[in-house]
């Protein structure tokens, strides 16, 4: 048994090593920028002269390999957060006290939002208020674009926003407030 399989089994996240490897591969692939190259001596000199105080120090300590490593670690953490902040179809069904087919039906009807990690559906936890779905959730889910990245949606739904009184959109919905406000936020999401 591999270390990854042991961890997946220990936390019962409903994913296979293959699912997790595929998601991690896709995320790490996004780090590779084939057209990018290290800064040239001319670019470094320009930054040193024009980028302001303290630039020399930052550039002297900057290492592109270290930067790539930091990005890779951040991507791995994002994939971990994606799994940790979501439920499998079975787990979501247990939380709502319904059959797993009821979860599939809600997803199909745009009453519950899901995404895939590998071949497995994941349902973000922010959609739940205890053992129920958030009020107004179906209206919000219907507005989420098909190509929306789950981390972007999770960040939007779980971050406080001053124009909704400092609440998160999930808190706003849980309080029974107007889901149309959150729908408008989602519609404007590509401008963020």
UniProtKB/TrEMBL annotation:
<keyword id="KW-0614">Plasmid</keyword>
<protein>
    <recommendedName>
        <fullName>DNA-binding protein</fullName>
    </recommendedName>
</protein>
